[in-house]
């Protein structure tokens, strides 16, 4: 499982003319899933995301977690995080989980995040999406399990 996490002031995802998800302060998560991902990987990642202290405290030190600032999550599926461009000019996506595997994993990951308390908005799995964000910082992390 790979997650590109961006701390944002605001973010939204649109499918065509429809807004699928929108948040203010929080994290935008681009989520890539692979064939070997399981419940343990999903739970680990959910706990990691929720527990990360990436927001500034009174001394502007990254010391506050999502819950401390009333932040939200916008979760967007992103199979291209498993793109391999080592050879040639066109990336291979062989390591990305196929939809029949990835969709239940993605839905379970979203459910685990919701169980942990924050407001969670999502994109639409498999759709062509426009993602717009205002990066807060910028703060961007690559998480992998």
The number of helices is 2
What would CATH call the class? Alpha Beta
Q: What is the molecular shape?
A: globular
**CATH topology assignment:** D-tyrosyl-trna(Tyr) Deacylase, Chain: A
Given as residue ranges, the uncertain stretches (5+ residues, pLDDT < 50) are none
Class derived from helix and strand content = alpha/beta
Gross CATH architecture: 3-Layer(bba) Sandwich
Summarize the structure in words:
With 145 residues, this protein is an alpha/beta fold. It has a single domain (2-144), classed as D-tyrosyl-tRNA(Tyr) deacylase (D-tyrosyl-trna(Tyr) Deacylase, Chain: A, 3-Layer(bba) Sandwich), CATH 3.50.80. Helices cover 21% and strands 41% of the residues. It is built from two helices and eight strands. The chain has helices spanning 39-51, 99-115, and strands spanning 2-15, 18-23, 26-32, 53-56, 62-65, 72-77, 119-122, 130-144. Strands 1, 2, 3, 6, 7 and 8 form a six-stranded mixed beta sheet that branches. It has a two-stranded antiparallel ribbon with strand order 4-5. Strand 6, helix 2 (99-115) and strand 7 (119-122) form a beta-alpha-beta unit. Helix 1 (39-51) packs across helix 2. The longest helix is centred in the C-terminal third of the chain and has 17 residues, at 99-115. It starts with a strand and ends with a strand.
